[in-house]
Amino acid sequence: MFPFRYKILNPTAVSKEPDPKKCATHILEASGLDSELYRTGHTKVFFRAGVLGQMEELRDDRLGKIMTWLQSWVRGYLSRKEFKRLQEQRLALQVVQRNLRKYLKLRTWPWYKLWQKVKPLLNVTRVEDEIKKLEEKAAKAQEAFEREEKAKKELEALYAKLLAEKTDLLSQLESEKGSFGDVQERANKLQAQKSDLESQLSETQDRLTQEEDARNQLFQQKKKLEQEISGFKKDVEDLELSVQKAEQDRASKDHQIRNLNDEIAHQDELINKLNKEKKLQGENGQKLSEELQAAEDKVNHLNKVKAKLEQTLDELEDSLEREKKLRGDVEKAKRKVEGDLKLTQEAVADLERNKKELEQTIQRKDKEISSLSAKLEDEQSVVGKVQKQIKELQARIEELEEEVEAERQARAKAEKQRADLARELEELGERLEEAGGATSAQIELNKKREAELAKLRRDLEETNIQHEGTLAALRKKHNDAVSEMGEQIDQLNKLKAKAEKEKAQYFGELNDLRANVDHLANEKAAQEKISKQLGQQLNDVQGKLDETNRTLNDFDAAKKKLSIENGDLLRQLEEAESQVSQLSKIKVSLTTQLEDTKRLADEEARERATLLGKFRNLEHDLDNIREQIEEEAEAKADIQRQLSKANADAQLWRSKYESEGVARSEELEEAKRKLQARLAEAEETIEALNQKVVALEKTKQRLATEVEDLQLECDRATAIANAAEKKQKAFDKIIGEWKLKVDDLAAELDASQKECRNYSTELFRLKGAYEEGQEQLEGVRRENKNLADEVKDLLDQIGEGGRNIHEIEKARKRLEAEKDELQAALEEAEAALEQEENKVLRSQLELSQVRQEIDRRIQEKEEEFENTRKNHQRALDSMQASLEAEAKGKAEALRMKKKLEADINELEIALDHANKANAEAQKTIKRYQQQLKDTQTALEEEQRARDEAREQLGISERRANALQNELEESRTLLEQADRARRQAEQELGDAHEQLNELAAQSASLSAAKRKLEGELQTLHADLDELLNEAKNSEEKAKKAMVDAARLADELRAEQDHAQTQEKLRKALETQIKDLQVRLDEAEANALKGGKKAIAKLEQRVRELENELDGEQRRHADAQKNLRKSERRIKELSFQAEEDRKNHERMQDLVDKLQQKIKTYKRQIEEAEEIAALNLAKFRKAQQELEEAEERADMAEQAITKFRAKGRSGSAARGASPAPTRKPIALD
């Protein structure tokens, strides 16, 4: 019983292992149990406590998986069937609409109306031609009718002749003797042939296993090729990722170049300003020199010396300033290089971190791909198993066909032997006529032989009927098996298409996930780079401000410092706005997550309510069962009292019997019988009550198990709630991190601008309110958790027993009150959250107003800076070169786009060519089908000619028999033996010729096999060259598998043909042995014959032999023509198979090109399905809530009933002083 119940856990071990003990050991090992939890004995398995329940759970899980798989398969089959019907309906509607459109167009076309009016007039002149044609057809029909009449008369004459011959044969058969021994020998020979056929069948099965091994090797090669293709696909994806990274690096470098150009423009502005100041100082110096020239007249020498000293001083000051500028430039370049180095180092670190993350994601996706490939391999193994079953069934069908053919041959041999027996009967009749009258002993022997012949005739008719019945049954089985195999093949093709579709879908999802990960990593790196660049720019601006403070006066320095700080603040303001928008997005995402968590909490609450309702229902059922048990116990006690009373009565009657004597013995016997009847009835009622008690105990156990299941579900719900709380804590941590970032940004905004500080404080205040709402929500969740713990404790108390119903009722009321309070608090929190959201929206509106004000001020500043932008023209010239390079890159991209468009056009042209080739292939297939039909008709004609030749051969044999009646018995037997010997030699020569032809055919097949192997190698070479084209390589692999299967089928057919030839050879050998025996008998009998009859009949035998040789030659020619036609049929079928493969290849190309169009439609449909699923979930949750409320009302009503019953029961127990029944514990 144990292996029979749990064999579903390890079916392979149960099917392979006959020993039940070993089978049980394999099942327990497969279940994953520890060896210390069980022991296997000779006839039983011993478990520890609770292990048997675990085994039942494993069995239930396995059964559940099987049922879900079966349901999904049936559902998929029905949906595919419905989809196919809708497709056919759509095509039919399109055809009807197209025909209606054409008819509506033609209806108003004037030429069509004219044609309708003119067409009847055109046929007026052709009436005579039609009449002539009809007359010719009538004449031909009359001639055919006359021919048929003549043929009918000839056939009737032939039928009469055949009837006469049949009567003669029957009369001869009745006079035949002793053929039972020959029949027995033939049966033994047939048994030997059966054993030979069984040995040949085993050999063919071994060959079939070898072919299956070869097919498995090809399948493994296909798997290897698919793995290589997937590797190449991964390499292509890695190259695309590297290209994307290079594009991102280029964009970042362009951004750095733009920043450097901005700095150069700013330096150019400073240099222009310094040149202006230098010019002013030069003009002042010229004025001073003119004033000094007036004083130089007084002291020329001193003035000359002073002018020289001032000139040298100016030169030294100029050189000093140049040196300072050069030093400042060198320091700036140094700081700039250091900043770039830090940026590059950080970028490298970011790239390494991103690389590690991508490697982790790639490993995870590789695991998913491996799991999907494992599923695909499982599906392919299932397909292989079904294909193997199909091949086995086909082999079985072929074997049955061979058996039918053997039966037919045996039937033909029986007919031939029947003809031989008829001929021998005729000969025996002639001998009897020549011998004269027969003795009484011969008459008796004739009667016995006639009886045996009648028996043999009946046996022959019964065997014919049996053969016909078995043939019809085999045909029916064959048709049923073929139809079932066709349905299985269609189902497997559908499953394969579904698996391929799921595989493509998983690959698409994988690519989308990788692209999303890359995009997020790039955005993160870009944001970090921008922040670092802004920090570096801030440091550079601070250094510039320090340098300008040393070189320029306080006014210009203050002005430039204000302008630089204004630009920095504007950039920081833009960054703050972007961060605010990001925070708003994060807020939206967090609100959605909050809604999800709320929904989960509501679902958990509904589930908890449903569990409580189920628990209360179970309590109600348990109380009812307990009441029933009490009632049954009372009834049992009453019956026991009645039994005791009956026993007392019996004792009373027994005492009366002893006292009063035997006088009333008859009355006592009658009373005794009545008492026995009542006693039997009481015992039956007791047994019925015991059965009811057992049933109630079983229901009690079942309810206890259901309560345990409900407790487990409650534990799962609490685990889900804990997981949701953990997720909420993680979200709170993320919110805290973003709060810190917001605080930093707010501090920067406070330092930059006072107006933004007010709005940022308002935003922080709103955030504080949001945090308060979050804290309130956390408090609600904590309370919810506490309530869940309390519910769990209550469930544990309920599991221990139902002793304190009133306390549970009070706790339920308290919990309902707390639930209402929590619901009110939750609603208040939601209202507060909505208020905070409204405040956030108001703050966003105010922030947008501030942004507009800042944009207005920025426009005013841009008008002021319009003059300074003119000086940036030189920088724009340098940037023009980069723009030209970008334009070149854009032109290159356009060129690539055009190239891709040209490739698309070429693919469309190739698609058109493929469609044309497909149409041509269809035409060629039709032509080959027509040729195949022609060859089949020719084959049928050849078969008819062969049948006619056989009929002529039979006629000639009957003539020979008629002529041989003139011979004496001894000479007849001798010549018959000689003729049979020569015929056997001729047939043996024909058999040798057929064997030679088979050897030649096997050699040609081996050459064809080598040729096909060469073609297979070329196909593999093409497959290695075109690994990037995965679809073509798969198709070629499929083609190779189909060719291998076709070769296996041809080899199997040739093996079957060789087996049939071997059977024929053995049959000929047996015939030769029979003929040799007959020859010996004929030679023994020939010694008794005369010489005159021998000389007379030899001439006649030679003539008949010549006629027989001519008939045999014609038969051999017909056989050769038949073989030629069969060879031609095989060639045409092979060519048709090749055309079909080409058609399938073209169709796959078309499907590949159309698959890209269907992906977008599928994505839209998936989105619609997701929306429909979400709506269905919402409706289902609403329905469950209503059901939970209804169950809660029902539970309250039941509790009130139980309370009333409990009160009435307690009152009744208080009134009764001495109860007779035992108290039953509730637990």
TrEMBL record:
Family annotation (InterPro entries): IQ_motif_EF-hand-BS, Myosin_head_motor_dom-like, Myosin_tail, P-loop_NTPase, XRCC4-like_C
Biased composition (Low complexity): 1207-1219
GO biological process: muscle contraction; myosin filament organization; sarcomere organization
Record GO terms (molecular function): actin filament binding; ATP binding; microfilament motor activity
This protein's record includes keyword Nucleotide-binding: yes
Basic and acidic residues bias: start-end ranges: 941-956
Keyword terms: Actin-binding, ATP-binding, Coiled coil, Cytoplasm, Motor protein, Muscle protein, Myosin, Nucleotide-binding, Thick filament
Annotated region described as Disordered, given as residue ranges: 191-211, 936-956, 1202-1227
Subcellular localization(s) per the UniProt record: Cytoplasm, Myofibril
Compositionally biased tracts (Polar residues): 191-203
Boundaries of every Myosin motor domain copy: 1-60
Major place of residence: cytoplasm
GO cellular component, one term: sarcomere
PROSITE patterns, sorted: IQ, MYOSIN_MOTOR
Domain of life: Eukaryota
Purpose: Muscle contraction.
Family of this protein: Belongs to the TRAFAC class myosin-kinesin ATPase superfamily. Myosin family.
Protein name in UniProt: Myosin motor domain-containing protein
